[in-house]
Amino acid sequence: MTIFIKKMCNAFITDAVVNRRIGGAAGRSVEAIGAAIGGLWVGGIVTVSADALDWIPNIMNKAVHDDLQPVHIPLRDVRSVRRVFGILTGIVVVELEDGGEFRFRCFNARSVAENMSDLLPSQVMSA
């Protein structure tokens, strides 16, 4: 499998849960932020091949979150990819055919979104 895009990023994970062992003020603060914004930005690596987008959490985030799962999205399930404004780093929004979305933030988000759009099956067929 050829990887066309590989980036360190933070993915917006709606069901991320801070491990209770963290506890204390730090754990409560992170939980409060997650509740307020509907999820947590979690560090990891996103890769995009000709077939799929994959995100895996980094080792630190695996340690501080309960049951943090990788994300696998076949490109055939992606409707569109766009970049939206984010402070310091842009945000790549991957819109899915079922109406859902996957968001991740990284440096050079505009070029990541453009390159990923070019890999979508609908773009490849029309080229």
Task: Give the structural class.
Answer: alpha+beta
Provide the number of structural domains. 1
Oligomer: single chain
- DSSP helix fraction: 25-40%
The poorly predicted ranges are: none
What is the mean pLDDT?
A: 90
Write the layout of secondary structure elements.
Layout: E1 3-13, E2 17-18, H1 24-37, E3 40-49, E4 52-57, H2 59-64, E5 65-66, E6 71-74, E7 78-84, E8 90-96, E9 101-106, H3 109-119, H4 121-126
Characterization of this structure:
The chain has 127 residues and is α+β, with helices and mostly antiparallel strands. It has one domain: Pleckstrin-homology domain (PH domain)/Phosphotyrosine-binding domain (PTB) (PH-domain like, Roll), CATH 2.30.29. Helices cover 29% and strands 43% of the residues. The chain contains four helices and nine strands; from the N terminus they run ββαββαβββββαα. Strands 6-4-3-1-9-8-7 form a seven-stranded antiparallel beta sheet. Strands 2-5 form a two-stranded antiparallel sheet. Strand 7 and strand 8 form a beta hairpin. The longest helix is centred in the first third of the chain and has 14 residues. The chain is elongated, with a radius of gyration of 15 Å. The chain starts with a strand and ends with a helix. The model has no long low-confidence stretch (mean pLDDT 90).
